[in-house]
Design brief:
The chain is of the alpha+beta class and about 850 residues long. The chain contains 27 helices and 21 strands. Helix 3 (about 95-105) packs antiparallel against helix 4 (about 130-140) and helix 6 runs antiparallel to helix 7 (about 475-485). About 50% of the residues are buried.
Length: about 850
């Protein structure tokens, strides 16, 4: 079994930033640090309240202090985010009327979820007895009582969870001008010294609170963010390209958001070559500001046992008319697997009034996940369930946000109200919820993650379509929609959008390049080559175009042409674009592997490893190199490392299976392929190879079951029909085998193996004339030596001695070595 190429020759790279306009990650949240900072040893203060009776005298020490210590002190303390402290009798007595006013109105403590719509940890809610204690204390004359219980202790300074193990700082600071538009800017914080550490919690200390609208902390292991940062003179870069949620966790910040530790068994493991990317949405304050936030990392020695997936529901097509009454934005997502939901994180701006999140089970029952009836941007948060919620496959997650775009909404940023569209600025609107889930079966997490990523792209698609509707004359929007479709693997839908643009801009090199990508994704390599070659003529020496043409060369089996394109490219692109250099080095190494130039392949793949040691493609290529050199143990190590680095991808697993099969152990290949199939149920090759491994391991019945499902799903898959015919015949089900062999030959008329299979099965069924007709329909000039020998055997069986002699004579001229086989000698002897 041939080892899989680690980098698919058809994998065409897109280095465009076009999706940035609508894929700005805007993870937001607020709320006081409820229950996040107090030492556990001080929680006894929460139990110190004396039970109220109708006749008891309410005192500060016995009844009020415990309420304040638990619910108010986390924010209202020296160094806290509250505007004043409530850390003793005098402070509370002086402000008791104000306290009662905000408590009775529901403004404090800040807790927006409606009771009964999700059971959340650290709920900032006063019960009836606590509210009554405050009321009776004031009405009873503010009695001090004895000595109050000790106040909880909190970490000093900006850190809610205590002093971090490592603090990363933005240095130099970003200089925000006094006036101008909002900015969404990304800052790269390299962490090479932290590779291999496990992050139990991450905190952000913004310092310049008044200008930061929100912040996200993301991760990038590709070098993309660092490269984009290097292109700008000032710190950071705009937009959002090349970074992801670290370990699947969602690290967002807004003023007052509470810091929380991650799940104990789901720490984020920092991989080699990872950079942190701090994304800030900043707003000018009327004076110049030095923006220099810090990130604190808390470590654990416990490695992760599982990783979460964040499911995003939302809309980028918001269009709110200025009118009275609620306008609703809704979205939904069907879960493909069983999951456990652990938290929910909504986000919207100032026009939002209501938020509802729920799941509809396959049985038709509604399961409430979150409800907020008085949305306030300043008090949003990530809400963690007291117990994970089990949601079965087929459950549909729903989001519904109601907006009030009228003067009746006191938070409306526009006076008078005006039309409001989607956008990241405070004057725009957004509609998002992120639901953090764990796959019930960890092997299904990669496939769940892919489904969630597709949902993200579909949300972006709606936004691009809305922009086309709003601005039909802007040529960029159809092109960006097409690129989003390409990312979803929908190249056939992308092509017409790009071709329409080509009529207006026939000599646009970028458009030609995108058409090449779309044509390749649509399975039209010849059209892709034409567009890439035209793009290269319009923009000579363009690295990504050269790399994609080389990928097409590799797909066509022309490693020499690929090597000729790529060898100069890796020299000229040594510093300007590390991503392109990496892709070119990998493709060049692949070409050299196919040309069996192991020395050159080792040199270029070694350079790729130095450039990106955490890229799984590098280890897949190095594994292939080791396997072809006969270094099986080294090959296995590289493939295993690739699988660890990218558990959501299947290439390394298929390579491990191929390695076992090459060693004559198809049974050992089965677990790798079964895992690959679980990782990506849509990976056709993993499914077909699993069936083949079962068949070669003597389990033909299981192979047939898998292939029957595959051809049902993909009735036009000729190779699947071919394999199914093979194993049906092995089980003695010759009639069914023949039917699938006919279908395989019909779908693959120029494939010599499909022709040989059909002819062989026809001959075995006694249909010799039709078997010979099948061979006759195959182009005579393209007959392979194996087909010529088969032709001779069937002709001899049919009594056509002259035809058999012609086939043998051709074999003597074109493949004399084949005449030494046992089957050929039998034919020759029969003709003697």
């Amino acid at each position: 079994m041939e080892l899989f190429d680690a980098l698919s020759a058809g994998r065409l790279q897109r280095l465009s930033q076009a999706l940035a306009a609508l894929l700005i990650a805007t993870a937001i949240g607020c709320g006081g640090p409820a229950g996040s900072g107090a030492d556990s040893s001080d929680q006894e203060t929460a139990d110190a309240a004396v039970a109220l009776t109708s006749s008891a005298t309410v005192t500060f020490a016995s009844h009020v202090a415990p309420v304040l210590w638990e619910h108010c002190l986390p924010c209202h303390r020296s160094g806290g985010i509250g505007p004043f402290p409530l850390d003793g009798y005098d402070a509370a007595a002086r402000r008791i009327d104000q306290i009662l006013g905000v408590v009775e109105s529901g403004y404090m403590p800040p807790w927006k979820p409606v009771a009964g719509y999700g059971d959340f940890r650290a709920a900032r809610v006063l019960d009836d007895s606590e509210r009554l204690a405050l009321q009776r204390w004031r009405d009873g004359g503010l009695e001090r009582g004895g000595e109050a219980p000790p106040r909880p202790s909190f970490p000093d300074g900006a850190w809610q969870l205590g002093e971090p193990d490592v603090v990363l700082e933005l240095d130099p600071p970003f200089e925000l001008p006094a006036a101008g538009a909002d900015q969404v800017r990304n800052f790269v914080l390299p962490i090479p010294h932290l590779a291999g550490r496990h992050v139990a919690a991450l905190e952000l200390a913004p310092r310049s609170r008044g200008v930061i609208h929100h912040a996200n902390v993301l991760a990038d292991s590709t070098g993309t963010a660092r490269e984009l940062d290097a292109r700008t003179e000032e710190p950071g870069y705009e937009g959002m390209v090349g970074a992801v949620a670290p370990g699947g966790h969602f690290f967002g910040w807004t003023p007052g958001k509470s810091a929380r530790a991650l799940e104990a068994d789901a720490a984020w493991q920092i991989e080699q070559g990872t950079d942190l990317v701090l994304q800030l949405h900043v707003q000018p304050s009327g004076r110049e500001e030095q923006v220099a936030p810090r990130i604190g990392l808390h470590f654990t020695d416990r490695p992760p046992r599982r990783r979460p997936v964040t499911v995003h529901l939302g809309s980028t097509a918001i269009d709110l008319a200025p009118r009275e009454g609620l306008q609703t934005v809704a979205d939904s997502f069907e879960l493909p697997y069983d999951v456990e939901a652990v938290s929910v994180y909504p986000h919207a701006h100032d026009l939002a009034r209501t938020v509802r999140v729920w799941a509809m089970t396959p049985e038709g029952d509604d399961l409430p996940l979150l409800r907020i009836d008085d949305w306030d941007f300043d008090w949003q948060d990530e809400y963690t369930y007291t117990k994970p919620l089990r949601l079965s496959a087929g459950s549909v997650l729903h989001l519904e946000i109601g907006y009030e775009n009228s003067a009746a909404n006191v938070r409306n940023p526009h006076a008078p109200p005006r039309r409001v569209l989607w956008g990241p600025d405070s004057s725009d609107e957004m509609a998002d919820v992120w639901i953090k889930v764990f796959a019930a079966d960890e092997t299904q997490r990669p496939a769940l993650r892919r489904a969630a990523a597709r949902k993200d792209l579909e949300i972006a698609l709606d936004g691009f379509r809305k922009r086309i509707e709003l601005e039909p004359d802007v040529a960029a929007w159809p092109q960006r929609l097409a690129l989003a479709l390409l990312n979803l693997g929908r190249g056939r839908e992308a092509l017409p959008l790009l071709e329409a643009g080509l009529q207006r801009f026939p000599d646009d090199a970028g458009l030609r390049y995108d058409l090449g990508l779309a044509a390749s994704a649509a399975g039209r390599p010849d059209a892709a080559r034409r567009h890439f070659e035209r793009a290269l003529a319009l923009r000579p020496g363009h690295g990504p175009t050269l790399n994609n043409l080389a990928a097409l060369d590799l797909a066509a089996g022309d490693a020499t042409a690929a090597q000729a394109r790529l060898a100069p490219l890796v020299q000229t692109e040594s510093t300007s674009d590390p991503r392109l250099r990496l892709d070119a080095l990998l493709n060049l190494g692949l070409a050299e592997l196919r040309l069996r130039d192991f020395t050159a392949a080792s040199r270029h793949l070694g350079e790729a490893r130095e450039l990106a040691p955490g890229d799984e493609r590098v280890h897949n290529h190095l594994g292939s190199l080791a396997a072809q050199r006969g270094e099986r143990a080294a090959a296995r190590r590289h493939f295993q490392r690739a699988a660890e680095l990218a558990p959501e991808r299947t290439e390394a697993l298929k390579n491990l299976a191929s390695l076992e099969a090459a060693l004559g152990s198809p049974e050992a290949a089965i677990p790798h392929l079964a895992r690959a199939r679980a990782v990506d149920p849509e990976d056709r090759d993993a499914t077909a190879l699993l069936a083949r491994a079962y068949g070669e391991a003597g389990r033909a019945q299981r192979a047939v079951q898998i292939l029957e499902t595959l051809v049902e799903q993909r009735p036009g898959d000729g190779a699947a029909h071919f394999d199914l015919a093979l194993w049906l015949d092995a089980l003695g089900r010759s009639g069914e085998a023949l039917a699938h062999a006919r279908r395989a030959h019909q779908l693959l008329p120029e494939d010599p193996d499909a022709c040989a299979q059909l002819a062989t099965l026809l001959a075995a069924a006694g249909q010799l004339a039709e078997a010979l007709q099948t061979l006759d329909r195959f182009p005579r000039a393209a007959l392979t030596p194996d087909l010529l020998l088969l032709d001779a055997r069937i002709a001899l069986a049919a009594g056509d001695r002259r035809r058999a002699e012609r086939a043998v004579e051709r074999l003597r001229r074109e493949a004399p070595e084949l005449l030494q086989s046992a089957e050929a000698r039998q034919v020759v002897e029969a003709l003697s």
